[in-house]
Amino acid sequence: MRRRKFLFALTALFGVLGIKRRAFAEPTDDYDWNAHYYAFVVDTRRCIGCGRCVRACKIENEVPMLPFFFRTWVERWVWLKEEKEPKVDSPNGGMEGFPIIYDERAIAKSYFVPKLCNQCDRPPCVQVCPVGATYKTKDGVILVDEKYCIGCRYCIQACPYGARYLYPFDGPRESRRGTADKCTWCYHRITKGYKPACVEVCPTQARRFGDLKDPNDEIHKILEENRIQVLKPEMGTKPKVFYIGLDSEVR
């Protein structure tokens, strides 16, 4: 706990004020989406709940800063010695970190769980979209074409991970207002060779991103050398966000 507090204080000192949003762009002409297939790893043993990832995501992707709109968020899971069920909270998505509200002597164990779109191999959101606005790219990322989205919310209801929301009508991006929005693993960045914004700013490397079609990518070693889990495997969606150090109770 002392180490976690120290790292949180350190990251709070530096903050994320220096993060600059890159211009939105389509994949470059020479990008071959048949040559890539991406995966994401979250190591809950490393996450310190600093919230830099959440803030970076909002800045990079123009997600409204007001509460309840998140492409990624962080949850705190706490098991108290005298209780059987965990306590779960995520104040403002974890963007400003987590206040100390529990007596450390009463805690049996605790950790932070970052969440985001799982970019499923079998995405239910694609299946239910009546106009084809939600689709899966050949490199395995689920996107929303805001020009076609009619804001029916079917995809939001179909997502078992709560990873979608309806972009507010007063949001900063006029073209996206009233349409479904979600994490894209910063598609405008990864197709140009950059890491997703949340991965780039993580001070502890709790978030890792890689290309499964690149035999030299470190993602292969991470997946091979660790016991990994996915959220809600019983749903049959085949998520591509893999977790390390996750308890089975986490949903």
Listing every helix as H and every strand as E from the N terminus to the C terminus, the arrangement reads HEHEEEHEEHEEHHEHEE
Structural Rg: 18 Å
| Low-pLDDT residue intervals, each spanning 5 or more residues | 1-25
Q: Averaging pLDDT over every residue, what do you get?
A: 90
Strand residue percentage: 15-25%
Tell me the major beta sheet: 4 strands, mixed
Helix and strand content put the structural class at alpha+beta
Query: What helical percentage do the residues reach?
Result: 10-25%
Distance N terminus to C terminus? 24 Å
- Strand arrangement within the widest β-sheet reads 9-1-11-10
Description:
The chain contains seven helices and eleven strands. Residues 1-25 have low confidence and may be disordered. The longest helix is centred in the N-terminal third of the chain and has 13 residues, at 2-14. It is α+β, with helices and mostly antiparallel strands and 251 residues long. It has a four-stranded mixed sheet with strand order 9-1-11-10, covered by helices on one side. It has a three-stranded antiparallel sheet with strand order 3-2-4, with helices on one face.
